[in-house]
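Supplementary Methods. Inverse-folding protocol.

Structures were first reduced to a discrete structure-token string of length 423. This string, shown here, constituted the complete conditioning input.
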């Protein structure tokens, strides 16, 4: 098996603090990291390795914990908040994925664009059509990407074409899971859209599906906007809170993550914490739709594991560098200072943990998949000017998050396969 030695400056945050190494190397064989050490020592130990020197900063690939496959073409749609935005833009865009050719082309494009943005693993919110989800799984497999996706379940409060019965969702989900999710790095995600789109019978069926498949993930939306919270209160008048709606159907637990979770009461946060449930925080989407400001400190203090999501198409960039900029700004607006190591952790290892892939991706630990990106200025721009003044790898990473975005991702390596991005 061929051996490759990637050399340069490496920064990762396996435990929440940044750890950097200059003049270092990562030895890759069979798509996995087999050594991470000083460059000189590795050159002695692996004299036959093909050496690739990467100018710039090498970090683990980003892990996007919440992004929608069928929403590329309507990202940045003008003028509405969540519920009207769904009706006016989102549902029509998703209906188009009933067409085989459209879905196939979009699946390839979606995975290509994730890689271009530096994302090497993701929990992808699929769509209501089994064939389109098959095409997405196939595209992930072809790219050797670790991650999760699945069929979106909804049986009310949407256009007819997106709705199907709980039984039909159960059957299609079983087929998808059996066909694609036996390799360990491709996981099945049960995706009831959100409580307003799912009847009690559908939520109950979701809970049963989750209970009978201990290896799958579950993700849904929770408490994103105030109007949505009030709608859920009117749809489930007997239930004490939005989070309790999911909990009563067996949908809370360590394999479950809840996108947004902005407007939660103390009791709801405690319920998430006590069940080991996780939060996919999507600051860019929250700003774009005017949904509210997520209090990261409060989630931390309550012990709720949190990672980051782009939430494209409500989010306006697939690149987690841009999402980190919004994350930082949202926390600063609330008076919370955020550590750079914590930012890197949130975009990498924290996401890996949320996906149940913490031993597979997220850092440069030996044995993990060789998933990494290289950051450096491509243009003569503000980022390049700032980069020239950076005096540490942490400073380079922070500058990239504030100023760099997708264009600062020079290359993306997934399972040892490197794609150099054109400048
Ligand atoms: N809530 C229910 N569906 C969606 C969706 O597609 N995007 C966002 N941001 N929120 C949702
Ligand atoms: Zn979403």
């Amino acid at each position: 098996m061929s051996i490759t030695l990637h050399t340069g400056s490496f920064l990762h945050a396996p435990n929440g603090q940044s750890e950097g190494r200059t003049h270092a190397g990562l030895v890759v064989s069979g798509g996995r990291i087999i050594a991470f050490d000083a460059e000189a020592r590795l050159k002695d130990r692996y004299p036959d390795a093909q050496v690739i020197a990467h100018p710039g900063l090498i970090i683990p690939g980003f892990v996007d914990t919440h992004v929608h496959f069928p929403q590329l073409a309507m990202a940045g749609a003008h003028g509405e908040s969540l519920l009207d935005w769904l009706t006016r833009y989102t549902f029509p865009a998703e209906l188009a994925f009933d067409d085989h050719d459209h879905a196939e082309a979009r699946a390839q494009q979606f995975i290509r664009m994730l890689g271009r943005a530096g994302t090497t693993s993701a929990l992808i919110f699929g769509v209501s059509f089994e064939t389109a989800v098959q095409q997405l799984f196939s595209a992930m497999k072809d790219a050797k990407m670790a991650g999760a996706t699945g069929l979106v379940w909804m049986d009310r409060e949407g256009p007819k074409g997106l709705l199907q019965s709980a039984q039909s969702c159960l059957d299609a989900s079983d087929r998808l899971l059996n066909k694609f999710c036996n390799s360990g790095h491709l996981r099945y995600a049960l995706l009831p859209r959100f409580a307003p789109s799912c009847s009690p019978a559908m939520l109950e069926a979701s809970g049963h599906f989750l209970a009978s498949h201990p290896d799958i993930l579950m993700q849904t939306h929770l408490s994103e906007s105030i109007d949505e919270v009030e709608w859920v209160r009117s749809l489930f008048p007997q239930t004490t809170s939005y989070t309790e709606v999911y909990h009563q159907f067996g949908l809370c637990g360590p394999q479950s993550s809840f996108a947004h979770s902005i407007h939660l009461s103390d009791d709801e946060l405690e319920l998430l914490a006590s069940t080991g449930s996780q939060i996919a925080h999507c600051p860019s989407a929250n700003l774009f739709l005017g949904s509210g400001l997520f209090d990261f400190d409060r989630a931390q203090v309550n012990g709720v594991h949190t990672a980051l999501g782009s939430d494209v198409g409500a989010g306006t960039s697939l690149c987690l560098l841009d999402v980190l900029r919004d994350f930082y700004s949202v926390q600063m607006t609330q008076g919370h200072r955020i550590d750079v190591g914590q930012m890197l952790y949130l975009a990498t290892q924290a996401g890996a943990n949320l996906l149940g892939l913490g031993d597979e991706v997220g850092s440069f630990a030996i044995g993990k998949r060789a998933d990494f990106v290289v950051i450096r200025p491509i243009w003569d721009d503000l980022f390049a000017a700032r980069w020239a003044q950076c005096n540490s790898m942490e400073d380079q990473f922070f500058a990239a998050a504030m100023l760099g975005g997708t264009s600062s991702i020079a290359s993306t390596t997934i399972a040892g396969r490197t794609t150099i991005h054109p400048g």
